[in-house]
Specification:
Elements: H1 13-36, H2 41-55, H3 61-77
Length: 80
């Protein structure tokens, strides 16, 4: 049997902002994927990576790449 537990977590405002930024990048990768009808990571990297590095200089590059991979794998799972 599985149960779902909801917990309140005290976290600094900076971390909340960080999560919102991650969500924004994720959503833009998903939107790009649907607009271009592809989930090709190399193509997404070529078209969006430099843009995100300029828009979000505080985000580590590995995080941006990880978000890309997760977003495109999510789209791929939908079998579009």
């Amino acid at each position: 049997m599985q149960r779902t537990i909801s917990l309140k977590i005290d976290m600094p405002a900076e971390f909340s902002d960080y999560l919102k930024t991650c969500a924004a990048i994720f959503n833009r990768y998903v939107a790009w994927s649907f607009d271009n009808k592809t989930h090709n990571k190399k193509r997404a990297h070529q078209e969006l990576y430099q843009l995100f590095r300029l828009e979000y200089p505080e985000m580590p590059s590995a995080i941006i790449q990880s978000i890309r991979d997760t977003a495109l794998e999510s789209v791929k799972a939908l079998k579009m």
